[in-house]
Design brief:
By secondary structure, this protein is α/β, with parallel strands linked by helices. It folds into 3 domains: 154 residues, no CATH class; 124 residues, no CATH class; 79 residues, no CATH class. Helix content is 52%, strand content 8%. The strands form 2 sheets. Strands 1-5-3-4-2 form a 5-stranded mixed sheet. It is elongated and about 100 Å long.
Length: 431
């Protein structure tokens, strides 16, 4: 995207913002719609509560909410009809509303009218806790509701007093505006890339991941279940890409997608409705194999704590598929992926102490390269049964290669703690 295009779009949005701006007023909290945003934005309730608590502590330290402070204003949408009616009730003019003079005029609305807040939801929840009396009010910057999608996104992404997005949220936003998860929008892509670039390490890691087509494609596939990215860790991407274990790590990422796709019966709308709270409760569990896990999760299912965006019948269908799909494996997520990567990294380090792996190879491709099928009995594969016993099963050369690699990994998992740190590499042959 050219600099001129960026400036043109930015100017267009700013011009529209000024056109749609109606003024600033004091509104009752009861007239604002903001508390139902938790599931709309798919926010983990624990994270939301922690952020609300942090704002509440800020208000305590500031000895009040300081709602007149421009940084504390929230942005909301109003129809032309409701705006005109409210101005008439307040006996003021639109010029007074736009004057930005303290005290701000108070606007009143019928009980059935709710003004939609685009941002500042956690701020308002905290204010509701701190303000006293029946006439709780807040200062709101009002905009006409017939605005463009670009301006709506720009206003909704206001950053004042909002929690800093984690790497998963940043990844989703950037990929969304790059067209991998939603419609591409070069302007907002640059805005979110700019926000990521404030952390140089994260910026460099994102660029490195983006250049790796296999891993970026695997992570992009998981955008169908955006809540999985609550477990995304951009900070360890250099370790993931440098551990020379591309094949097993990519298989794991595809396994995550396949598992959730099957549980949601391939319905991408259902996949998008899975919340971070549900992911957090299910990941690493096996209700299809463990009666303890099943009892614990069933209690949450009955209370509506998991699969909470669905009807009772839909929850039951999802639950039955989750149990069926967890009979042979733990429920996977990006959190379990990055945790299990640590274990795989230890085993990989063990193998790499005795194996030369060049810059463009992986452990598995290096093992395949040095494989020698000499002195093997036709149609048979040697397998290790215990530390001292071996047996054979039927198989050809390809199966002997596959089983040889698998058994080396198993040996590394068993023995990586005992392998001396100073062991020298040698011309190992896989036989």
């Amino acid at each position: 995207m050219s600099i001129q295009y960026f400036r043109t779009v930015n100017r267009r949005i700013e011009e529209e913002r000024r056109t749609k701006y109606c003024g600033t007023a004091s509104l009752r909290l009861a007239s604002l719609r903001y508390q139902d945003q938790e599931y709309k934005h798919n926010v983990d309730p624990k994270i939301k509560k922690a952020h609300v608590d942090s704002i509440t502590r800020m208000f305590d330290q500031e000895h009040g909410c300081r709602k007149e402070d421009e940084r504390h204003h929230v942005k909301a949408l109003i129809s032309q009809q409701e705006l005109e009616a409210a101005i008439l009730r307040a006996s003021i003019t639109i010029e007074r509303l736009k004057a930005d003079v303290v005290p701000y005029p108070e606007l009143e609305f019928p009980i059935h009218v709710k003004i939609e807040c685009l941002e500042g939801h956690d701020l308002l929840v905290a204010a509701d806790k701190k303000l006293q009396g029946p006439n709780k009010r807040w200062i709101v910057d009002l905009y006409l509701d017939d605005l463009s999608d670009e301006l709506r996104v720009s206003l909704a992404d206001g950053y004042d007093y909002q929690k800093k997005p984690d790497s998963g949220e940043l990844y989703i936003k950037i990929r969304q505006f790059q067209g991998f998860y939603g419609e591409s929008n070069p302007f907002f892509e640059k805005m979110w890339l700019g926000r990521l670039a404030t952390n140089l390490n994260s910026w460099n890691l994102f660029k490195r991941l983006s250049k790796n087509r296999k891993f970026s494609a695997a992570f992009d596939a998981l955008l169908d279940v955006p809540s999985l990215f609550g477990g995304f860790r951009l900070s360890v991407m250099h370790q993931l890409l440098g551990m020379k274990c591309d094949e097993p790590n990519l298989v794991y990422l595809r396994h995550i997608y396949t598992w959730w796709n099957n549980v949601c019966d391939g319905d991408k709308e259902v996949m998008r409705q899975i919340t971070k709270k549900t992911i957090g409760a299910l990941q690493g569990m096996a209700p299809g194999a463990s009666s303890t896990d099943r009892a614990l999760l069933q209690a949450q299912l009955r209370s509506g704590s998991i699969f909470e965006n669905f009807s009772v019948s839909q929850r039951e269908e999802l639950w039955q598929r989750a149990c069926s799909a967890s009979q042979q494996c733990l429920i996977p997520s990006l959190f379990t992926f990055f945790e299990d990567r640590k274990f795989l990294n230890d085993a990989a380090g063990c193998i790499m102490k005795i194996l030369d792996v060049n810059e463009n190879s992986t452990i598995i491709s290096s093992l395949e390269e040095i494989f020698s099928d000499t002195n093997q009995e036709e149609g048979k594969c040697v397998i290790q049964l215990s530390e001292t016993e071996f047996g054979t099963i039927a198989g050809d050369s390809n199966r002997r290669l596959d089983l040889g690699i698998r058994q080396l990994w198993l040996a590394a998992f068993r023995n990586y703690r005992e392998l001396p740190a100073g062991t020298q590499k040698s011309d190992t042959k896989l036989r």
